[in-house]
Amino acid sequence: MTANKPPDRALALSEDLRAAFKLVIREMRRDADRQDAGLSLIQTMLMAAIDEHPSIGVAELARMQQVRSPTISGQIKTLEAAGLVERTAPSQEDGRRSGLRLTRSGRTTLGKLRAQRLDWLAQRIARLSPAQMDALAAAIEPLTLIGTP
Question: How many angstroms separate the CA atoms of 135 and 137, rounded?
Fold first, then answer.
């Protein structure tokens, strides 16, 4: 084994985990498509990021989401037109930069979407056996560690 190559077990687990995540994410997207809010997954993700980082700018949001600013700008304009996101007053440090925040309607919509997603996931987890739930619970901490730098 070279210093740069992960062990075979880590590679095998990585492939299994990638496949499992792909299935879960695919089903979450299908469920999101059936929701009445009419928002795409990216729009929902942007609303969640804005909710977590009030007054975030478009450029910073694009960096955070690892998407080009024009792509984010188009999505934000759609969310603004729907009355879900609004711009804050320009920054005192940089008069060209305004921040973003959710409107009251945006917060309500995001809350409903989060509740629907939580319910969707809870219903699927409820179908697992007690042993499978224990295994899932035991996997949460290591999965969280994978996601931290």
Answer: 5
